[in-house]
Amino acid sequence: MDLYYAFSMLIIVATAFAYINMRFLKLPSTIGIMVIAILVSIAVVIIKKVTSAHPLSNFSTLIGHIDFTQVLMGGMLNFLLFAGAININLKDLKEQKLPVIVFSSLSVIISTFVVGFTLYFLLDVILPMVHIHHQVPLIYCLLFGALISPTDPVAVLGILKEAKVSKSLETKVAGESLFNDGVAVVVFTLLFNIAQGFESVHDLTFISVSWLLIKETVGGILVGLALGELGVYMMRQVKDYKVSVLITLSIVMGGYMIAYGMNISGPLTMVTAGLIIGDSRRKVLENHTLETNYIGVFWELIDEVLNAILFLFIGFELLLIPNIGHYWAIGILGIIVVLFARYVSIRIPTVIIPFKEKFSKGTITILVWGGLRGGVSIALALSLPQGPYKETIIAITYFVVVFSIIVQGLSISKLAGKINVQ
Predict the structure, then answer these.
(1) I want to staple 116 with a disulfide (CB 3.0 to 4.6 A). Which of 141, 152, 211, 417 is the partner?
(2) Which residue segments constitute the domains of the chain, with CATH numbers given?
């Protein structure tokens, strides 16, 4: 009953916030829900300080007891990635395969180390000079770099469409953000293992690290291909949209269990399977078999509902950082460092790799400013074990995520309309 009660409350609150946003704020749906949740969280914190209101305390306790990391990484993320992947045109993605592969892998690694080393230098060298003490070991700064590097397409894709940017740029942003979650989780896991067992770091050889990366990424893609092809075959045999919807649900739920059991990347499994099924569905629709569109409508609805809950979660995560005001300085530094690292991680590949198309300054600007951070970053931060650095990392992550979604997300449309993008 507790799980049903918690889920019911979240749906009701998300519905209320979505209604308020549509009636009054008129912001993009997910951003509006998150903004209202943040305002409510601030109000709850303030009211709790001046009164002992039991309903508010119970609400804060409810949010605190929800395992956001498990809910997102063990459930919601699989549905969201699959839903996003089936709407990506595989033909367009193939045309942009090199930028997508590079930005979702090499750029993640570059960003991780640029963020980690820059933040360490600022926190442990520069800030103590002005009597601000938030020292964090290098390995934990690198962990922050890994968890903050994956981008989130949820809020920006709809805005980019409204801004009428080119299809190639839209595909780059979508493709990168769909694939880089899996790569970032692998990098985060490697660094986390080093942080937990630093004495045995010599066991992490180049061969062992390479094997883990290959196993996670290649294994996830291969299993996703197999599941996608199996799903397409079964749907072609039955030709019934109700059974087809059940097949896609089974692929997502069963695929996660398979990936978890094989210790391979669940996100990459879901993305690959979604791309295969989405491409097959698109070919069927081109032959005027409109019944197949029910699958797209179903997953679009799932995507909207889960995104509403996800951004509601993000807004309410403020309740888990009771001393958020103590971290404003390093939060602002974190925002600057992440934007700088994003620029470096995009700029370096465009200089050293001979892409088929030349990247204009405008395109790079949109790729940098459109690199929003979201729920995956917060989930990974919350997954860290209790320790002296966890609250600091969570606080910086929250500042970066909120800034990227609200400020970058709401301004990307105007920016894209003013500069030359290709």
Answers:
(1) 141
(2) 2-65 (no CATH), 68-418 (1.20.1530)
